[in-house]
Every structure is written in C-alpha cells, then in structure tokens.
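Input record (one chain):
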Amino acid sequence: MVRVLAMIAALFWPVSAFAQQTVAPDALKLTVTLEETQAVPFQNEMVLLTIHGIYRRHITLEKLEQPDLKGFNWMQLGEDHWFESVVDGKTVKNMRRRMALFPEAPGKLEIGPFIHHLTLLDEDSKWFEHDIRSEPLTLEVKPAPETGDWWFPVRRLEITDRWSNAPDQLGKGEGVLRIITVSALGASPDMIPPMPELKSPSALVFAHPEKRLVDLSPDGPVSIAFWRWTIKPRKPPSAILEPIAFSYFDTVNRKRQRAVISAQKVAISPAEMPAPLSIEARAEPSELQVWWIVAALIAGSAIGVFATGAQGRLFSFQAWGRRARLALLKHRIRISAQRRDLSRLRRACHALNRMLGEKPERCQLLAELDHLLFGRNPDNADLARFSRTFLASL
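The corresponding structure, as predicted from the sequence alone:
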C-alpha cells in the first residue's frame, strides 16, 4: 500500500512542479502599504495598514500569514474583503485586509513580509501550492512627548453626558444616575484615560465599575468607555458636581487639546421641597427633652461633687459634654431610623463614628448603609435593624 501511494505521488509531482513553473510573474500580486500621514507618527498613534492582493488565477484554497509585528499593538479591522475588478479588460479577483497598528516604541520599526499561501488549479484541473510574498516595510516612529499627563493620541473624540432623569428636578430622597460616554476613533480601549473621580462638596457620589468596548470600522477602531455614578444631594435642596477634565492629542490637527465636562447642579424640584418651618418648630421636642435631661444630670453631678469635696478632684465639664453629645447622636440615630430620614441617619452615624474613632466593623456597617441608600429599593431598607446593629457595635 505504501509503495502504491509513493508511486501515485511520484506520478503527480512532475505535473505539480511544472504547473508551478507556469505561473506568470504578473498573475499573482500582493502589496502592503502604509497610510500616508502628514507627519511622523508618535508612539501609540494609530497607523493604518492595507494588504491588497490581485489574482488572475483561479484559487481553490487560501490562507494569509502575517508577520510577527514585533513592536506593535495591532487590530484587524473586520474580515477580509473579496471582490472583483476589471484590469486591462479582464476580470480579476481582489482581496483587501485593513489593519490598525499602534507602535509601542520609537525608532525605525520593521514590518516583515505577508505571505499568501494559495492552492491553484493548472490547465489540467490539478491542484498545486503556490506562495506569494509582499515586500517588507519600515516605519519611523517618534517618542511620545513628555506631558506629565496621560498620553492619549486620537483622531476624533466625542463625549456625551447623559442622566437617568433631569438632575435639577429630583424628588425628595431620590438620586440620579450620570453616564459619561467617551468615544475615540483611532485608539484601543486601554488608551482611554482611567475613569476620573467625580467630586462634590455637597453630594453623595457612588461610582460604578466602568465599561469599555470597541467597534471596528474601515477608518480604525472606535473605542468607547462608559463612566457611571449615582448621585444624591447630601444637603438638600441642591449640590454642585465639580467639572471633569483630561488631555488628549489631536492627531489630525497635530496639537494637544483639553476636554472639559462642565460643572453640574443636582437639585430637588421646588415642588418637592417642604414648607418653611416656624422658629418654634425647627428644634424637635424629643431632642430638647434629651438636652434637658443631660443638662440636669450634669448639674446634679456637679453639685454632688462639689458638695462632697471629692478629695480635690475637679469636675470635668469636657467629659460631660462628650457624654451629652454621644447621647444626642444615639438618640438621633434611633429617631431617624424610625422616621426613615435617610440623610439625617447617615450624618448621625458618620458623626458618631468619627467621635469614637473609626473602627473597621463600623466602617463596614456604614458602607452597607450607603448600599441601602443608593440601592434600587432604598424604601425597603430595614433601617430599624441597621440602627440596632450599629448602636450595638459601639
């Protein structure tokens, strides 16, 4: 059996070899070209590469082998495009592949030859293998400029600022979801700057994990980053969010630009605001009762200490003031939980935590409280259970 197969291979080998020799030099052509640019590209700046094959022979099988592309990060911009065209009055087949290259180092970088492995048919309808190669290329790359900031070269940048609902028309106790979308043509997803910190002196800001994706186009990859925050005014009726800014390099106009997302006001709708309270109603009677009780205890203890002499020990009004403040904050936590006053409950818990010294277990409970306040169903949060657990941890 082995001898038979060897004899068959020997019979077909001369035909195959002869067919390979009959391929005309202009019958198959593979070229690789770099996009012409107005300036030498910087590190990480996108350079477009086009591989174009023209074939005047019938192809049964094909596989395009690309070089190692050492020193480049790269993306293939979609699938290979096969089409027909007319050259010198004859119909020929074409293959085109587009790639985006991102040079990772400065200097002269080499792009080796692409090899197209083809299986062709000869005049006797016999298959034979034939390879064509492109010429190697060299690309000059300049080092990225020293900016002291995030290096972000991009051909086109678009930024949108969207909100789940009108940020200045919130209902009482409501929060709002802010989504900033950064869309960059000619950049890979990792080139977009990290998600910034959204700052506000008067709002509670909960950052969500960012999301990134990429869409491929003939002009290069379009990378998109989604930055998301849930925001709630800390002290109603309004809060100010500080602006967000980052730098980028415009590779079309060859200059550095600065993208600025302006400051934004988050506010409760005037229709949701409660009617003004009278001077007499601004202090809760329950808190006044607590203060009267504490004041009476301080006075009684002071009289007792001074009356008995206490062997020269001085009465510490500072210690009693601390105890009074502690008792008042505990009372506020209980009352706020009963009345479901979320913002006041959070302020009292944080004030008490700072007063007693921040402990890991209390910080964990406060983090759980933030999840309750900014969750999907804050109205269903068991605040009574939380207040009991928090006070028990003191």
